[in-house]
Specification:
It is a single chain. The chain has 208 residues and is mainly α. It has a domain of 133 residues. It is built from seven helices and no strands. The protein is globular.
Amino acid sequence: MSSAVRAEAGTDLTDLPYVLRSALTLGAITAVVVVAMSFITRFLAGPAEFGLGALVLVAGLAAATFLPGTWTRPRTIEGIAGAAGIGLASTVVFLVIDVAVLQPTGTYTNRWLEVGGGSNWWYHPVWWMVGTYLPWMGAQILASQARKGAVSVGAGLLTALALTVACWVVAVLVHFPGAGWNLGSFGVSFLPGVTLAAILGAATGPRS
């Protein structure tokens, strides 16, 4: 994925070895987040589960969404695609860890199993898609910020979270199927939230 022409030195970093090394790191981070959520849902309940789970979930979403773009420093479609590539490869790394370690050691609670009809394998295709989509949106947000002169992961994350909360509240109030005041609904709401943040960033500011 190396490009002959880059917007500026040190940007759109998409050499294949670099992408693969970054994917290994993100895949390992993902596994840590999943294990942490497993312990939280297994041993906590009520406000403690929700509060600590929310912190870990937001940290995991932030890492999956913005770390790849931070690593590729996207300015053009090259860097954005590279970030998505890191996300996709990281899902493969995580799923290897999942199959080799997490599933055999009983990481997932009954609630996780019930969602998948008694199977731990149901989420793998979803993981591939979401794990590629989030870095794509995150890199788009960072590239849009770069056009305005300053790149801030914190600002991008806050915008995405604000729009996520808005989508979450609307989904619950209109009785969207399955929506409720829980972390699952919040996590799903992050998908439209980060998408809206990417569209907002692309629609404002100077264009190259």
